[in-house]
Amino acid sequence: MTAALPNGSSDAGDRNASGPRVGVLALQGDVREHAQVLTALGARVDLVRRPEELDLVEGLVIPGGESSVMDKLARMFGLAEPLKAAIAGGLPVYGTCAGLIMLADTVLDAIAGQQSLGGIDVAVRRNAFGSQNQSFETDLVIPVLGEAPMHAAFIRGPVVESVGPAATALAGLDDGRVVAVEQGNLLGTSFHPEITGDHRFHEYFLEKVRARAAR
Amino acid sequence: MTVSETGSSRVKRGLAEMLKGGVIMDVVTTEQARIAEDAGAVAVMALERVPADIRSQGGVARMSDPDLIDAIIAEVSIPVMAKARIGHFVEAQVLQALDVDYIDESEVLSPADYVNHIDKWSFNTPFVCGATNLGEALRRINEGAAMIRSKGEAGTGDVSEATKHIRKINSEINVLRSMTKDELYVAAKELQAPYELVLEVAETGKLPVVLFVAGGVATPADAAMMMQLGADGVFVGSGIFKSGNPEARAAAVVKATTFHDDPAVIAEVSRGLGEAMVGINVADLAAPHRLAERGW
C-alpha cells in the first residue's frame, strides 16, 4: 500500500522531472514534511533507507526525529559507512534537529554507545533546552537568508555548544547560543524549517545541491 | 528581546511529528526503560502496570506514582509519556508538573469522568488521545489533543481491534475526500465533530495531527501491518515486556516499523524471538471488559 509511504515524489513527478534528485533519510522522523517542502521547491524526492538508494541522490536531508534511533538503524542496516563516505565525498547534506546531531563531529549527552556520522566541526548537546515543556517557537535572524527573520520551532532541540575552526555559525539565539551551522556542503539547524512554512533554508540547501550537480 | 512561545500547537504537534516512523513502548521499571531506549524506542510510556496486568488484576487503574515517573525520566533521554485517566484534569496537572513530554488521556486507566474529557488546550504539555473512529479523533483534537492513537484493544496481544480502528478512520477520511463542500455540513453533524476540522480533513486527506496505532500489537509483523495500513507509528504496550525475550522483540519491532514494506527484513527480524505474549482473543472478552469502548 504505497499510501503509507511519506514520499512526496510521486505526485509531482513530471513537473519536477528536471529538478535535482534529493534524498530524505527515511529511517525515522518527520520525513514527509521535508519531502513536501523539497517537492514544492522543484526537487525529485527519494526516500533513502538503503545504501543503493543513497547512490542515486545528489543531496540528502536528515530529518528531525530521535537521533539515537536513526544512529542505531543506520548502523544496523549498513547505511552509516556509506553515509560517512558520501559526506566525505562532498554530498550536500542538510540536517534538522536530530539531523544536526547526526552531522556533528561531537555529540554531548548522547545515549551509551550512540555515534554520529560527523562532518561538521561542532559539539552539539542533545535536548539542550530540557523537556517538551521547554520546546518553543521564536524568530531568528539568519543573515545568509536575508534580513527578514525566520520563524523557528525548537522541539526538544539540540544546541551547538562549540563551533570548531572548520565550521561557521549561521544563527544564534538572543543569548548567543548557536542554532544553525554550515561547513562546506553541510548544513545543520537545531530547529525545523520543514514545519513552519518558511522554505529559505531548504532553498539555500538546494543551491548547494544544484551547484555541485552542475560541476 | 525576541518573543519566545512555549506550549503552542506547533510545538505540541511538532513533537508527535518527530516521533513518526517510530515505536513507543510501555515500561513499568527503569530497567525496562533502559531496554526500550537501547532497542531503539522513540519514546517510552511510564506506567505502574502494563494493560495486560491491569486487565488481569482488575480494580481501579490510576495515574502512576510520581516517583516511578521521575525515575524513568532520569533513566532515559528519549521522550517520556505518562497516562492520566479520562477527564482527570488534576492527574494531568500533576503529570505536567512532573515535566513529562506527553500526557496520554487513556482509556486503559479507569475513567474519572464519564461525560467530559480534559480541556487539553489549557495545558503546556501536549496530549495524545485514543480514538476508534474519525468523529472521536476530531472531538479529541477539538479539545486540544496534539496526537491521536487508534485504540485497539490494549493488553490482549490481539491486533484485530487495532486493525479495525485504523481502517475505520482511514475509510471515513476517504469518504470525506469524495464529498462536495455542501455535503460536509451533514458529515460534520453525523461525525459529531466541528465543521472546520471536517473541512480540513476533507481538503488534506489526513488528520491535522499525527496518527499512531495502539492496542494489541505483539509482533514485528503486527507493527509492519499497521504501518502499511497508514499508521504514522506504533505504540507497543504489553507485547514487549510480556514476551519471552523483550530485548530482541523490542529491537525487532523497531526494525519492522522502519522497513514495514520490506517482507525480507520483517522475516529476518521475526526469527528466534522466543514466545510472544500469550494474549487474549478480543472476541472472548465480555463487552464490559473492552477498554476501547471507554471514551466517546
From TrEMBL, chain A:
L-glutamine binds at residues 65-67, 126, 155-156. Pathway: Cofactor biosynthesis; pyridoxal 5'-phosphate biosynthesis. GO terms for molecular function: glutaminase activity; pyridoxal 5'-phosphate synthase (glutamine hydrolysing) activity. It catalyses: aldehydo-D-ribose 5-phosphate + D-glyceraldehyde 3-phosphate + L-glutamine = pyridoxal 5'-phosphate + L-glutamate + phosphate + 3 H2O + H(+); L-glutamine + H2O = L-glutamate + NH4(+). One of its GO terms (biological process) is pyridoxine metabolic process. InterPro entries: Class_I_gatase-like, PdxT/SNO, PdxT/SNO_CS. The active site is at 97 (nucleophile), 192 (charge relay system), 194 (charge relay system). Its EC number is 4.3.3.6, 3.5.1.2. Catalyzes the hydrolysis of glutamine to glutamate and ammonia as part of the biosynthesis of pyridoxal 5'-phosphate. The resulting ammonia molecule is channeled to the active site of PdxS. In the presence of PdxS, forms a dodecamer of heterodimers. Only shows activity in the heterodimer. PANTHER family: PYRIDOXAL 5'-PHOSPHATE SYNTHASE SUBUNIT SNO (PTHR31559), PYRIDOXAL 5'-PHOSPHATE SYNTHASE SUBUNIT SNO1-RELATED (PTHR31559:SF0). This is Pyridoxal 5'-phosphate synthase subunit PdxT. It comes from Agromyces terreus. The gene is pdxT.
UniProtKB/TrEMBL annotation, chain B:
GO terms for biological process: amino acid metabolic process; pyridoxal phosphate biosynthetic process; pyridoxine biosynthetic process. The active site is at residue 83. Residues 9-214 form the PdxS/SNZ N-terminal domain. Keywords: Lyase, Pyridoxal phosphate, Schiff base. Its EC number is 4.3.3.6. D-glyceraldehyde 3-phosphate binds at residue 167. It catalyses: aldehydo-D-ribose 5-phosphate + D-glyceraldehyde 3-phosphate + L-glutamine = pyridoxal 5'-phosphate + L-glutamate + phosphate + 3 H2O + H(+). One of its GO terms (molecular function) is pyridoxal 5'-phosphate synthase (glutamine hydrolysing) activity. D-ribose 5-phosphate binds at residues 26, 155, 216, 237-238. Pathway: Cofactor biosynthesis; pyridoxal 5'-phosphate biosynthesis. Catalyzes the formation of pyridoxal 5'-phosphate from ribose 5-phosphate (RBP), glyceraldehyde 3-phosphate (G3P) and ammonia. The ammonia is provided by the PdxT subunit. Can also use ribulose 5-phosphate and dihydroxyacetone phosphate as substrates, resulting from enzyme-catalyzed isomerization of RBP and G3P, respectively. NCBIfam families: PRK04180.1, pyridoxal 5'-phosphate synthase lyase subunit PdxS. PANTHER family: PYRIDOXAL 5'-PHOSPHATE SYNTHASE SUBUNIT SNZ1-RELATED. HAMAP family: PdxS. Homohexamer and homododecamer. In the presence of PdxT, forms a dodecamer of heterodimers. Belongs to the PdxS/SNZ family. This is Pyridoxal 5'-phosphate synthase subunit PdxS. It comes from Agromyces terreus.
